[in-house]
Amino acid sequence: MGALWANRERRRYAVMACATVLVVAVVCAVALITRGSGKAGGAAGTRAPGTAARTVWTPDPHGTTAATGTGKAVLGLRFALNVFYLPRYSPPAGAPFAPEYTIDLKSLPASPGQSPTPVRDVRVSLDLSAFKGKADIYDVNKGYGCVRTDFHLDCALGGIEQGAIFVPFRAKPKPDTARGPAGSLKMTVRSANAPTLRHTTRLIVGSPYLTARQDYPRLTGVRPGGEIRLTPAFGNKGDTAVDGGLTLLISTRDATLPLRYGNCRYNKATGATFAWCDLPGPLPAGAAYETDGPVTAVADAEARTGEMRFSVWRTVDGDYLSRLPASAPRGSGAPLRLRPVDGSAFTGVDLRRSESAGAGLSFETTQKYDVEAVGFTIKGKVGQVLDVTVPYPLGEGWTPRGRSGSFWVTLPQGVTVIDVPPESHSGDIPYCSPDPDKEGRAVCSGPEPPGTVMRVRIDKRVEGARGSVTFHSDPSVDPDQRNNTAPVKVEYGP
Fold it and tell me: Is the Cα torsion angle 234, 323, 62, 187 positive or negative in sign?
């Protein structure tokens, strides 16, 4: 789940890579928050570029409006901020990053079992007059038809068949603005054939700055089926309290969570890998807490490595893509509680300072790796040039952790590898290249999701010709080196 969370952060803020945050459990494999560069409309055109439509819609219990009318079309507002914290201008640093006001609209079935009806002529109107004297509005999203008049913004999205996710504007704080409640931002969504939506966002000048304990040690020597313990810790280094509740998200990879805590919901009744835990607020400025004991996970029986991660969110604007329904399995024990700690060393991410923070740990078990090469056959006619997929091995341990690795193919006699420079093709698939250290051998890289390809030419027929594919691994973690090499054969066509 840690990878899933990292993916979501890369999507949410295209200008940063956040490798230390968790989870988002459960669902986050789509690019969801982005600057739109094209209007909504059509099955492939209803989303911001680089995003994927989701088919599950969960209404926000904290104020997000959803249309439920009986018209031919229904449009749902899956997400918009309920509280906008406008950080204060702080010389000499200047204006810090303000939150992104992301809007997520979704075309919904009018009744269960029906397909959504396309929503026509969608228009989003925003009354941003609460920003007057407090912030400058800029970066109006023209790609989604947004036009600004003073502190009013109108976006003509056109038709929506599936959904639209976009940031209509950005805000930059002005100097000398008094901290505290500052009114409301008001949104109205109208269309030609669906009920009108309305949503109100509270504007507060000042901002919490959520932080988390970092540098959790990597655990080694964990027994498969053994316990991994993590004590989540977080704080608020901002100038404004989180005055509502807090939500702690916990996720695992190659480990499971016992259904222990009464204030946590879990994604599965058995084998849970994600927990959504509601905690009471507030989180005052300057305060920091940790859980009153470590949260425990159990390493999978076959696990060699894994992760356990957490993040903390303001409940009112918690990660809506990860929210578990009220019917999700709950823990059977006492609630997870907090105790105060010194959070002076905790850190956060400036681009999402009022939203969330997180961290976690990775672990390594005593289970040994076993890299097993997979052989393959080159099939073709003499004189033919062809692309051959080179299979990756079974098992892990042949690549450096988190990076690509190299492996080698010794060509059967009569077969030549052809160099394919990256600039000569438009795809993402890596090609093997001639090995400069040894004639008749190719060097390949991976693992890449599309696979690795080798371009070869069959120069002549050599009966019984054999080559090999070889993957290197550390003998200390992969004691069986005998199966790191597999044969490469040639099958000649007529």
Answer: positive
